[in-house]
Structure formats: structure tokens, C-alpha cells
Amino acid sequence: MATLRPRLRPRFVLPTSLSPDNASQRLEGLLRSEGARVVGQSVKHHLMLSLRNEDRHFWSPWLQLEVRTEIGQDETRVYGRFSPSPSIWMGFALTYLALGTISLFAVTFAVSQWMIDRAPNARWVVPVCAAIAFTMWTATRIGQGMASDEMAELQKAVEDCLVP
User: Fold this and answer.
1) What is the torsion angle, in degrees rounded to the nearest 10, for the CA atoms of residue 120, residue 125, residue 126 and residue 128?
2) Cβ partners under 8 Å of residue 78, min gap 6
3) How far is CA 130 from CA 120, 142, 148, in A?
């Protein structure tokens, strides 16, 4: 099993001797198998996997897979990327965007205050935004720790499915 490096959205690459079509068919078969804990959706060579609703928690990961062969290579590769549920991921992404935008405006306003010889009080918004972003990043690390067993289970299911 490939090891997951700590990142905001951990990822892995699995090489396989199967063709992209055969690998995708096997992965789709994983989704159709009875009694499997893995559910999801697929569109050609793109799949989104998660655990069944009854096994899923707030922190449970989703696994996005892309099956492809790179130009000039004979080997098919399955690219996997873990993320929280799409609604949680969108909330995190939009919050980071908002924090960045607020910080940019605060810096601009603070520089304007400084240029007209006023106290740049707006500069205090930047450390507050940074503290919020750090707290969110820490929550991400905690969530990945809580979901590590589920991430390993999803990755193992994919690896076992692709064994020729």
C-alpha cells in the first residue's frame, strides 16, 4: 500500500498493467458488488468513492479516482485524491478564499492609512485571518487523523480491485 503524505488533500498513484478501460470496469464492479462498504459514482475513467451511508461519519473521506495512461507510457495509472465530503470541502475552500480576500483588503486599507499618516489599525485583521486559517488547517489534520482508517480502507479496496 502506498503511504499517504500529510497534505490538505492526500493523494496516491497506483500503477497497473490493466488497460484504462479494464481498470475502470473493475473499479465500477467494486461499486456494484453486493455487501461492499464502498459506494460511489463513475463517469468513464473518473470515479468518486465513499463508504456506505450507514458507515459514513461527518469526517469520513471521499476518494476521487482518475484512470489514465500518460502519453508515451505503456502503463496505466490510477490517480487517487482524498477529500472531505464535497459540501465540507467547498465550505473550507470558500472560507480560505474569503480569509484571503479580507486579508488583502485589510492590508490595502492599512497601507492607505499609513500613507496619510494615520495609525494603520486595519493591519490587525491579517493576524486574525491567519489564526482562523491555522485553526482550519489544524481541524483538517485532526479530521485526517480520525479518518485515516477509512482512508486506508478505501485505498485498499481500490488496490485489491486492480490486482490482475
Assistant:
1) 140
2) 13, 14, 15, 16, 23, 27, 65, 66, 67, 158, 162
3) 18, 18, 27
CA distance 91 to 85: 10
The span from the CA of 51 to the CA of 118, in Å, is 56
Say how far apart CA 40 and CA 66 lie, in whole Å: 13
What length is written for the chain? 164
Output the CA torsion sign for 85, 91, 96, 100.
positive
H or E element, residue 65: strand 62-69
pLDDT of residue 1: 47
What is the pTM assigned to this prediction? 0.74
Q: Domain boundaries in the chain?
A: 11-84+149-161, 89-139
Provide the grid cell at 69: 495512461
- pLDDT tens digits, 85-137: 888 889 999 999 999 999 999 999 999 999 999 999 999 999 999 999 999 99
Place of cell 477529500: 83
Kindly state which CATH superfamily the domain 11-84+149-161 is placed in.
Answer: Kinase associated domain 1, KA1 (3.30.310.80)
